[in-house]
Write a structure and sequence with these properties.
Number of strands: 9
Number of helices: 13
Mean pLDDT: 88
Shape: globular
Low-confidence stretches: 1-32
Helix content: 25-40%
Order of helices and strands: HHEHEHEHEHEHEHEEEHHHHH
Distance between the termini: 35 Å
Strand content: 15-25%
Amino acid sequence: MARTRTPVLALACAAALLAVTGCGAADMTQQASPFANAKGAKTVTLSVQSWVGAQANVAVAQYLLEHKLGYRVDTVQIDEVPAWDALSQGRVDAILEDWGHPDQEARYVQDKKTIEPGGELGVTGHIGWFVPTYFAKEHPDVTDWHNLNKYADQFRTAESGGKGQLLDGSPSYVTNDKALVQNLGLDYQVVFSGSEAAQITQIKQFAKEKKPFLSYWYKPQWLFEKVPMTEVKLPAYKDGCDADAKKVKCAYPRTPLKKYLNARFAGSGGKAARFLKNFSWGTEDQNEVALMIADQKMSPQEAAKKWVDENEQKWRAWIPR
């Protein structure tokens, strides 16, 4: 994600940053936990991605590991692709939400065997282009990509250089948008806001003023509860249509989000590793916690505790016996 696309990002970053989304790009050489992959240590180090859904996952996993299994949990913020390197090297023990990186999976899971799949998160992710529903109701044909050039002038901003603006988040997220704009012949400019938090701020401002906008966005995401948005239909996704990043002319796939564990940790991590493999919840659960963090301004720990207190039947099955 979008994605994108930390609730928890690093413990230091977590409290302040968590309320919104991310703390910015991280240098793993500076943030790697000294406890990650430590033999015999009852400590777990989790990678936190810079979007609030990932924050929600880690917040709940951290709370349960600490309060129900007696582990110390370290969290480290890192971008999507570098997180695979860190996981392979044992600088973090687990990634709880991956949006699909086949090149990294082939390298580390299949070839080097330094990373093991940890099972599905239980949430299906989808990236797409969205317009505010209030604009789609007034202009129903905008939801077909063939008609986007018709509305380019209305989506223009000071940053889009005379073209319509396609608002993206962080350049580090999974995105084909520049290629899509070019290959579909669209009179648009991709403008990166820099982070999920900045993109949310911009979308909220557009919505407050009832202005039209076109944005890269993703599900699940709590913002849909506050700013209803309607997806623009891009050319249908087919297997392999995005294999060449420069030639992409199709929509993004729907991706079952997955977890990955450092291979050594998966074998020797005891109850912590088994718990993380068992951890699986739904879109509504993730959105509930994300909404508490990002919109209600609760700390990740407070949001996690509230969810845990109200959902014992769900998380009890994750705890190894």
